[in-house]
Amino acid sequence: MSRQLASKWLKTNVMAANPYIARHIPPSRLFNATNLRSMLNRYGMVVIKPIRGGGGLGVMKVARIGGRYSCTYMARTVTTSSLSGIMKIINRRRGRRPYLIQRGIRLATIAGRPIDYRVKYVKENGAWRYRAIVGRVARRGLFVTNLCRGGVQMTAAQGIRLSLSSRWVRRKKQEMRNLTKASTALLESRFPGIGQLGYDYGIDRNGHVWILEVNTRPQ
Length: 219
Known about the structure:
Order of helices and strands: HHEHEEEEHEEEEEHHEE
Number of helices: 6
Radius of gyration: 17 Å
Helix content: 25-40%
Strand content: 25-35%
Strand order of the largest sheet: 1-6-2-3-4-5
Shape: globular
Number of strands: 12
Mean pLDDT: 92
């Protein structure tokens, strides 16, 4: 039985301690009003997500444009003129669940719809193997790409070619493989017993590869 590790915050901190991997992890902080204000001031747009959970459930996008704030959940966006106003909107959705804030990455898109990538890495007979590397395009109007939320699956090569350029296909797939291998070695040394991992990668519009999160119970 493969070990489960639910906390996104714990996994993020372990990987961010490695300088090579850290360059590919969006800056993240625990959710509170002070951290939200400073990250919005710095990045303009953030994603907030439950520390435990999957399937895109509870994930919100928060942005500051001039003096106004917006919060998007699924296909609905609410705007307000104050940080305290946006905190009330977030907390109604969040309840008492602990959340983290992650720098928002402006992902490459296909026909205006963001795409990310799932790399499934599984340990079989003592050796780690790649089970799948696929692209997932968000349903029109959504920013989450989860297939259970209407996302469309395609090959990673197809996704990179359509959202960026065919000349980047080989290089970006190799970058994801290299990061997967390095991150897994780190996670396995810290959490012995893990046996299957699902890495969610984003590639921004400049071609930089980001590790958005890692799941120990990949869908």
